[in-house]
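Two quick folds needed for the group meeting slides. Do the first one here.
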Amino acid sequence: MTTQAETRPAAATKPVRWAADAVATMREGARLRLDYSEQSLWRVDRMIESLRREGTPYGAVENTLRGFGAYAGEVIARQAGAEWWASGGDHWIRTADGRMWDPIEEARRCFAGDGSLRLLCRDATLS
């Protein structure tokens, strides 16, 4: 029997770990339950907005944003059958229609006040 982890491309290794770390951190630290559903991205967007409004320095949340972006990418991968792609240390999601999405950069845009992981997921999963 082949498990999901065995069939995933090597490019998924780091983002899957970053996403799992974000889920664990939010569950333990913020009591926020993330279940890899599209609806959970509302909570992630609100959490990023809260960090931004509090004036948290980017350097203090850089890894958290990477984790949130990877989490959004995993939601897209699970909902749309997309795959992680990597090149030069960057990671993207490629949907079945061939479009490339950058959820990690979208998390950074959210923190800057100009993005939404929920909307990115919605757009990526519409076919």
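Then this one, please, same format:
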Amino acid sequence: MGLISEFKTFINRGNVMDLAVGVIIGGAFATITKSLTDDLIMPVVGYIFGGADFSRYFIRLGDLPAGFKGNPESYADLKAAGVAMFGWGEFLTVFVNFLILAFVIFLLVKAVNRLMSKPEDAPAGPSEEVLLLREIRDSLKK
């Protein structure tokens, strides 16, 4: 029964529930960020650099398998067929997605740190009360 009660105590802590909420919100936020990257930012970047989809930029390293029926210029078709590729365009998309997510999290943490109250600095020396109590103590010793 000790293990079950310890587990129950662990689950009832506020930190576990906060973590669970954070993971769920983080997953939803990652979906929004992925859509921002895939649907808004990368098409503009792709348009500037001559293509609407960065995933089409890759270097095929392996041969096409026998009986390959997909498009040999499609990253998704080649990946599904198990062809070895250097998919730098897809990596670039994921990397931009990461940078956006990291920057937004940085801004959120910065905002939360501003909102949280800062602990007061401890006085450099002993307080007046401590000094007075020391004087009384020393007087009583005499």
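Slide caption for protein two: DSSP finds five helices and two strands in the chain.
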